Amino acid sequence: MPEVVVVIGPGQIGQAIARRVGVAKHILLADMRMENANAAATVMANAGYDVSVATVDVSSREAVQALVKQATEIGEIKGLVHAAGVSPSQALPTTILKVDLYGTALVLQQFGNLIARGGAGVVIASQSGHRLPALSVEQNKALATTPVDELLTLDFLQPDKVTDSLNAYQLSKRGNTLRVMAEAVRWGKRGARINAISPGIIITPLAKDELAGPRGDGYRRMIEGCAVQRAGTPDEVGIVAGLLMGADGGFITGSDFLMDGGVTAAYWYGELAPR
Fold first, then answer.
1. Domains along the chain?
2. How many CB atoms lie within 10 A of CB 56?
3. Which of 82, 214, 224, 258 is the most interior residue, by most CB within 10 Å?
4. How far apart are CA 213 and CA 192, in angstroms?
5. pTM metric for this prediction
6. What is the pLDDT of residues 148-170, one digit of tens each?
7. CB-based contact 80:107 (threshold 8 Å)
């Protein structure tokens, strides 16, 4: 029975991670759109990887359960890469919370129910979660541990409280890292690990669209004002994910790795600080 790595959101970052953790394993590439999954599968199959495809809407319990079923029919699930989501420029606050916050919690719940011993997962969060002001202890616990189907009913996530897409995105990504921490306890009982990565600006087709769009000036300011003065690449995220999901990262679980070239440091303590 083959070992399976499920990649939800097989864009440039998802593929970069899959190349590092999917050698000699079966990689199941899942996307909202089959054409995206097929395109990624063609690239990876041509590079010698064993792949198959699926569609999934992470905000749908039935769709996520169907993906889990498809994966278990292939083999033993040893890896999960969750890189799907929507950006502030793509959706309304309610949609962002449903896909990025609820969807991630749902994926972690469903795959955590049967992740194999020795398995590992990584969730792609965002530097944006690190620029959200501190939440209360109660809010942190609520984002981390509220039952999945009750998550979007939390008072501080209601439409009259979250009116801005960027704020919804920041709350979702902060919630992702908190959820990973809580899920690490449950995954650990199965002998598995789960971590998050919070990338900064990584050059992908989506980032190029953002750079050319209404938020482009802000993106360029972040790139110019950070310590390394450049954007990142998908392969750099893949390197970190390879560590977290591999044997060398065996002592790391429930953690969030911020890799943004120093943007967050400059936001809180440097030239990018709000004026």
1. 3-203+232-261 (3.40.50.720)
2. 24
3. 82
4. 40
5. 0.96
6. 999 999 999 999 999 999 999 99
7. yes
In this predicted model, what pLDDT tens digit does every residue of 11-29 receive, in sequence order?
999 999 999 999 999 999 9
- Exactly one of 169, 189, 219, 269 is catalytic; which is it? 169
Residues 249-273 pLDDT 10s: 999 999 999 999 999 999 999 988 8
List the Cα angle 180/168/34 in 5-degree steps. Answer: 70
Written as six digits, the tokens of 251 are: 């002592």
Cα–Cα distance measured from residue 260 to residue 227, given in angstroms and rounded to the nearest whole number: 9
Which two structure tokens, joined as six digits, stand for 168?
Answer: 């919804």
Residue 161 annotated as catalytic: no
Non-local (6+) Cβ contacts of 46 within 8 A are: none
Phi then psi for residue 193, to 5 deg, are -125, 155
Q: Does the annotation mark 169 as catalytic?
A: yes
- Which of 25, 78, 98, 173 is catalytic? The answer is 173
The vertex-172 CA angle with 171 and 173, nearest 5°, equals 95
Within 13 Å of residue 81, how many CA atoms lie on the same side as its CB?
A: 32
Both tokens assigned to 23: 């050698």
Cβ pair 17, 81 in contact under 8 A: yes
CA angle 154, 105, 32 (to 5 degrees): 115
Q: Whole-angstrom Cα distance, residue 60 to residue 80? A: 18
Tracing tokens 């890292």 back to the chain, one arrives at 177
CA atoms within 13 A on the CB side of 54: 24
